[in-house]
Write a structure and sequence with these properties.
Number of domains of chain A: 1
Number of helices of chain B: 6
Organism (chain B): Smutsornis africanus
Structural class of chain A: mainly alpha
Keywords (chain B): Cilium biogenesis/degradation, Glycoprotein, Signal
Subunit structure (chain B): Part of the tectonic-like complex (also named B9 complex).
Order of helices and strands of chain B: HHEEEEHHEEEHEEEEEEEEEEEEHEEEEE
Shape of chain A: elongated
Oligomer: heterodimer
Largest sheet of chain A: none
GO biological process, one term (chain B): cilium assembly
Number of helices of chain A: 4
Order of helices and strands of chain A: HHHEH
Pfam families (chain B): DUF1619_N, TCTN_DUF1619
Helix content of chain A: over 70%
Distance between the termini of chain A: 14 Å
Chain lengths: ~140, ~550
C-alpha cells in the first residue's frame, strides 16, 4: 500500500519537526529577550514580534496533531483521511509565511535567526513535498 | 507671505556621514594637515612621508553587524619615502549573534534631534525644558505639591544671603551691573554687608520725575519681618545730611520730614546722593527695625549724571557691633584688635577694648614737622601684615630734666592707652579670654657696656613691636593667627649737655610682622587595617 510506504519518512519527519520546533520556539524567545536588553528595542516593535511568535506556536500544535492523526489512522474510510493532511498543509503555508517573517522582516535578524529559520523552512519544505506526494497517492 | 513660510519650515541638521572611507576623526584642523592622521584628506604624499604612526588605524561602522566595510590606514615604513596605505575591506564578524539585517531604521545610529519650530516649540519645551528629562513629567509636579503642605507649617526666617523681601518685591540696593550705571534690580541679601557706588543719569528738567533720586523711592515699601509673612517693618529715616554744591555736608536736625526733589533757583535740590541702611535683626532671623540715613544734594543745569552710593549693614539686637578684622584669621590691612584686662580682676574674664576699630593698637605717626614734642599725639593704627616705621626728632636742651623727659617719650612712643592684650584671631570675642595674647614688654639698652652705677639717665628712644603670627587651619584655606606680641623699648643714656647747647635725638617706633608658621604637614588618612580576630571560644573543646 503506497500510503503505508510513504508514511514512514513522513512520520520521522513529523517527529523531528515537533522536537525541532520546541527548540526553535525556545531559542527564538530567548533571542528576542537578549535583543531587547542589548539593542534599542522599543515596545511597538517588540510587541508584533512576540505576538507572531506565539501565534506561530499556537498554529504548530493543530498542524502537527492533524498530521499525526493521519498517520495513526482513524476510524473512517480513506477518503476522510485526506482531509486532515490537507488541512495540515494549509496550516503549513501559514507557518511558512511566519517563518519567512522571522527570517526577513523581523526587527533584528541575527545570524542565529537566519540559521534557525532556514532550517525550519527546509523542514517545512520537505514535509510539504511528502504531504503532497501522500495526498496525490489517494487522488 | 512665502518668505515667512519658508522660514517656518524646519531646517534639519547636517546629514550624518556613514561612508567609512570619508570619515576621519583625527582631522581636526580645517584645510591643514593633522600630524599622524593618515585619513586626513588635506595631507599630501610629502606629509605622509613625515608621519611616524597612524593615530587612527581602522575606521569601521558598528561592529555588531555581520559584515561591514572597514577602512584600514597604515604606514609602509619600508618604502623610501614612507607612504600611506589605504585599504577598503569587508570585515566579517564571526559571532553567531551578529546583526544580519535590521528593519528598524534608528537601531544602529543616534537619532537626530528635532529642530524646534514655532509649532513644536511648546511641546519640546515641556519635554526637555527642565533639568532632567523624565518620561512622565506629571509625576514630578505631584511630588512637589505633596511637599508644600509640610513646608507651610514651618516658620520662615531669613538666612544668610536670602534677599530681603518687601511688600511688593525685594529691598533694592542699586549697584552697577555691566557698566557704571545704576541698576535697580540688585536685591540686598540678609546679613550681607554691602557698599556700592553707581552713576545715575539726571537732569534738572526731570527733577521731580526721576524716582530713583527721591527719598520716597527708598523708604516707601515696608520690609517683611520674615519671608512670606504679612508682618511689616517700616523703614524710618535715621538722619539726613545735606550736601551743598561745593561739597560741604551739614547734618539736619528734625529728620522726620520727608524731603522730595524740587526746583529752587534753577537748582534741583533734595536729590538723593547716598543711602545707608541699618537693619536690626534678632538671632531667630527676623528683622525688627530698619533705618535709613540719607545724604541729599543739589544739581545744577549742567549736571547730566550723579554718583550715588549705597550701603547696608546689619546689627543683631541688643548687641553693639564689633568691627572684625577677619573671620577667623586676620585679613591683611585690617587693624590689629587689642584690649585691656578689666581693673581689679586677677584673672581676666573679659577683655575690654575700644570699639573704634582704629583706636586699638597704635603707633606714633610721623608728621611733616618731625618734631616729637609738637606731634600732638598723632597716632596711626597698626594694620595686620603691614610693617611700619615711624619716627620723629627730639630736640633736647640742657634744661630738660631726665624723669619728665623719660615720661614724655614713653607717652609719645606708647600712646596714652597702650593695650595689654592682642586678639589672636580677627573675630576673637571679648569673653573668650584664652583667645587673647598678652603683650610682652622688654627693655634693652643701646649701650653694650652696662654700668650699674649709672647716674646718667636712660631715655627710651625706640619702640619696636614684633608680632609673630602663624598660619592656622587647613592647607587650602590657612587663617592668620597672632601667636606672640613683643614690645621692646630701647633706651640710651642721655648725656649731659653743656648749657645752651641743643641736641637732636631721633626717636623711632616700628611694627614688624613675622610669619612663624611651621611648614604644613599633610595628613593622610590611615590605611584601613584588616581586623581579624577569632571569636573567643573558637577552639572551644580544647581551650
Amino acid at each position: 500500500n503506497s500510503h503505508q510506504l510513504s508514511s514512514v519518512p513522513l512520520q520521522i519527519l513529523f517527529y523531528v519537526n515537533g522536537i525541532y520546533y520546541i527548540f526553535y520556539f525556545l531559542a527564538t524567545l530567548a533571542m528576542i529577550v537578549y535583543k531587547s536588553e542589548v539593542f534599542s528595542y522599543p515596545d511597538d516593535f517588540l510587541a508584533p514580534d512576540l505576538a507572531l511568535l506565539f501565534i506561530m506556536a499556537i498554529l504548530e500544535v493543530p498542524r502537527l496533531h492533524l498530521a499525526f492523526c493521519f498517520l495513526r489512522g482513524s476510524k473512517g474510510n480513506l477518503s476522510e483521511e485526506e482531509a486532515p493532511l490537507g488541512l495540515s498543509l494549509v496550516i503549513t503555508v501559514g507557518s511558512v509565511i511566519l517563518s519567512v517573517y522571522f527570517l526577513v522582516w523581523q526587527t533584528y535578524v541575527l545570524k542565529a535567526d537566519v540559521i534557525l529559520n532556514a532550517l525550519l523552512l527546509f523542514t517545512y519544505g520537505l514535509e510539504s513535498v511528502l504531504k503532497v506526494v501522500a495526498i496525490a497517492a489517494f487522488v | 507671505p512665502p518668505e515667512t513660510r519658508a522660514a517656518a519650515r524646519p531646517r534639519s541638521g547636517p546629514a550624518p556621514v556613514t561612508d567609512v572611507a570619508k570619515l576621519c576623526i583625527c582631522d581636526l584642523l580645517v584645510a591643514q594637515c593633522d600630524v599622524n592622521c593618515c585619513c586626513d584628506p588635506d595631507c599630501s604624499a610629502a606629509d605622509f612621508s613625515l608621519f611616524t604612526t597612524c593615530s587612527v588605524p581602522v575606521v569601521t561602522g558598528d561592529n555588531r553587524l555581520c559584515s561591514q566595510k572597514a577602512a584600514m590606514y597604515s604606514l609602509d615604513v619600508e618604502a623610501n619615502p614612507p607612504e600611506r596605505i589605504f585599504k577598503l575591506i569587508d570585515q566579517v564578524n564571526p559571532n553567531v549573534f551578529c546583526i544580519h539585517a535590521t528593519n528598524y531604521k534608528q537601531a544602529l545610529s543616534f537619532s537626530s534631534p528635532q529642530m524646534p519650530t514655532s509649532e513644536n516649540f511648546d511641546q519640546l519645551l515641556k519635554e526637555f525644558g527642565s533639568a532632567a528629562f523624565s518620561a512622565e513629567p506629571d509625576s514630578w509636579d505631584m511630588n512637589t505639591d505633596a511637599q508644600n503642605p509640610s513646608d507651610a507649617n514651618e516658620t520662615y526666617r531669613y538666612e544668610y544671603g536670602v534677599p530681603i523681601h518687601t511688600v511688593d518685591a525685594f529691598l533694592r540696593l542699586p549697584s552697577p551691573v555691566v557698566s557704571s550705571w545704576c541698576s535697580d534690580a540688585n536685591p540686598a541679601g540678609f546679613l550681607v554687608n554691602q557698599a556700592t557706588k553707581c552713576t545715575r543719569p539726571v537732569s534738572v528738567r526731570k527733577c521731580g520725575n526721576i524716582q530713583a533720586v527721591s527719598m520716597l523711592f527708598y523708604i516707601n515699601s515696608g520690609i517683611l519681618a520674615v519671608p512670606k509673612s504679612s508682618q511689616m517693618v517700616n523703614i524710618t529715616v535715621q538722619s539726613v545730611v545735606v550736601q551743598s554744591l561745593n561739597g560741604m555736608r551739614t547734618l539736619l536736625n528734625g529728620s522726620d520730614v520727608l524731603r522730595l526733589p524740587m526746583i529752587l533757583d534753577e537748582l534741583c535740590i533734595n536729590i538723593v546722593l547716598g543711602v545707608s541702611y541699618h537693619i536690626t535683626y534678632t538671632d531667630m532671623g527676623e528683622i525688627i527695625e530698619a533705618a535709613a540715613a540719607f545724604v541729599l544734594g543739589a544739581i545744577n543745569k549742567e549736571a547730566l549724571s550723579i554718583q550715588q552710593s549705597f550701603e547696608i549693614s546689619f546689627t543683631q539686637v541688643n548687641t553693639k557691633p564689633v568691627p572684625l578684622s577677619g573671620n577667623p584669621g586676620y585679613v591683611v590691612g585690617l587693624p590689629v584688635r587689642a584690649g585691656f584686662r578689666p581693673q581689679g580682676y586677677p584673672f581676666p574674664v573679659e577683655i575690654l577694648f575700644n570699639t573704634n576699630k582704629y583706636g586699638q593698637l597704635t603707633i606714633l605717626q610721623s608728621t611733616s614737622s618731625q618734631d616729637c614734642l609738637a606731634a600732638q599725639g598723632a597716632r596711626t593704627p597698626v594694620l595686620f601684615g603691614y610693617n611700619m616705621v615711624s619716627g620723629c626728632k627730639l630736640r633736647t636742651t640742657a634744661a630738660m630734666k631726665c624723669q619728665p623727659l623719660t615720661q614724655t617719650l614713653l607717652d609719645l612712643l606708647k600712646g596714652q592707652t597702650f593695650p595689654e592684650y592682642v586678639a589672636s584671631f580677627g573675630n576673637s570675642r571679648a569673653q573668650d579670654v584664652l583667645d587673647w595674647v598678652p603683650i610682652t614688654h622688654l627693655q634693652t639698652s643701646e649701650q653694650r657696656i652696662y654700668n650699674t652705677f649709672q647716674s646718667s639717665c636712660q631715655i627710651p628712644i625706640s619702640l619696636e613691636i614684633e608680632v609673630k603670627w602663624t598660619k592656622y587651619g587647613s592647607l587650602v584655606n590657612p587663617q592668620a593667627r597672632i601667636v606672640n606680641v613683643t614690645a621692646t623699648i630701647t633706651t640710651t643714656t642721655l648725656k649731659q649737655l653743656p648749657s645752651g647747647r641743643e641736641r637732636t635725638i631721633p626717636i623711632t617706633s616700628s611694627v614688624v610682622f613675622t610669619d612663624i608658621s611651621s611648614p604644613a604637614e599633610p595628613g593622610y588618612k590611615a590605611w584601613p587595617t584588616i581586623n581579624v580576630k577569632l571569636p573567643f571560644d573558637f577552639f572551644f573543646p580544647f581551650v
